[in-house]
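Consider this pair:
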Amino acid sequence: METTKKIILITGASDGIGLALANKFLNEGFHVIGSSRTGNITSIVHQDFFVIQLDVTSEASIGEAAKVIHEKYKFVDILINNAGVGTDLGTMAPQRTTFEQTINTNVTGLVFFAEAVLDLITNGGQVINVSSQLGSMTLRPHINSTAYRMSKAALNMYTKVLAERLKGQNIKVISLHPGWVATKLSTKGAPLTTISSANSVYNIIINNKPTATFWNAETGKELPW
């Protein structure tokens, strides 16, 4: 697709933070590719919005989505790996079903979709991994949400590894904590709306932070790994 606008690819754009980010970047003049499991995002109707069907837990779906993107676009300026689940949030002991679902989505699926489209990222582009401060090994640990915490810690390692690998291509890779946001993953007591979080995430991305760093979008401060 021919466009003079910067192109941003956002996974998990059908609701929550992903949907708010899609709207924010459209409002700021970007061309947005958004993914959803169904291939439909009816809440956005915009000439610069293109929806792809993607289930990151499916190798076939990743392959098909990557094929569609490669056929339609020559480049992507920013990739936001946002799709994720938190099925064990708040639970004390890990259970196999939710553990596997979390790791398959937040780690395996994210990594292999990112790898499938990395060749489209432009020189000077960015890969943004939506992580969580719950994945920090330094911050005070708690005893709950084992799978979610482990998945975000693993994602942070991927950020470090990928950042090192892409240094020669002038592509920055960062992890980002979007804040405690009221979404379907976490609503009880969450102080931030998806819109306010998206605004904060946008500011972090636009400020083009150094590669291999971890940021709290809400405070604008760097987080410890």
User: Anything to note?
Assistant: The CA atoms of residues 37 and 54 lie 5 Å apart. The chain has a mean pLDDT of 95. The longest helix spans residues 96-117. The first strand starts at residue 7 and ends at 10.
